[in-house]
Amino acid sequence: MSSKSQIQDRARFDQIRYAQCWEDADQLVAALQGPSGRTFLSVASAGDNSLALLTLDPARVLAVDLNPTQLHCLELRVAAYRHLDHAGLLRLLGSRPADDRAELYARCRQSLSAECREWWDAQPDLIAMGIGAAGRFERYFRLFSQRVLPLVHSRKTVQALLQPRDPAARRQFYQQKWNTWRWRLLFRLFFSRWVMGRLGRDPAFFQHVDGAVAPVILERTRHALAELDPSANPYLHWILNGTHGEALPLALRPEHFDTIRNRLDRIEWRLAPVEAVAEEVSGVDGYNLSDIFEYMDMPAYSRLLQQLAERMNPGGRLVYWNLFAPRTRPEALSDLLQPEPELAEQLHGQGKAFFYGRFVVETRK
């Protein structure tokens, strides 16, 4: 079986694509609840959700990624947990305003590998803006909030959206104040496949996606703004304001800071596709697979899903997200994997990373 990912030759992996994890770690951790001492394999991305898995008291978290700059993001986060207090971590990431990020980085760089230190030393502008803002996807959202959104709503209206309200009041605010014709028009333009592929995600990531994407994202956004609570959504706060405000993703919440810091020796990372690592590692109890199946055709997805399932302990779980391409366990693998649709649907309905169409949980039989 090939240990090379299908996306490797079609997209660039020499820049930070995601300076944050844009999947909701609350969903991930809830789906992987279980006893202490387990082994997790996690798509690294920027590292937030791999670090969040440490709250489950595992024996080992192995984070993997095709992109060396994504692993630089994870490594600097690990150093920040080691050398900074909680407030300093939030300032370095950009979750809070700061003018001392160069100093904060200087305190962290001593424990970085030579390659990682050399890379970040050459990125003073990225450090100054907050390392959580340093990715292509975050720049895309910053362009939206700074250039597009002001054409639709005033800052006063944006901040009003983020105020706590009861469900009926949220729906009323959305319909009467937010959901204007200009909002719908500019949203559909900015989040079209063409614009997103050139400014946000690589066009190659849409190869297995059928149909227009903007109307789908618009409806998911309506759900997040009108049905869920925008005031408690860290992803929405960042998109609209460029910081997390008082809402934080799981790995950044103060109650988890010491837990993660004290378990940093249990996380390791490797530059490799999931396919290659899965050939080497057995006895896995849980997979955090982000949305990697989005980039694969169905035969490649089925092969990798089978490979991962065969390396799992009974009762272990695979967790992943569908953005636009529908991917769930094929019937041919029914002897290996049991879907958990009720749990997945319940967690998906609460998900704060609102642009995903489906949350998938499957258990090894």
Automatic annotation (TrEMBL):
It comes from the Bacteria. InterPro entries: DUF3419, SAM-dependent_MTases_sf. This is DUF3419 family protein. It comes from Natronospirillum operosum. The lineage of its organism: Bacteria, Pseudomonadati, Pseudomonadota, Gammaproteobacteria, Oceanospirillales.
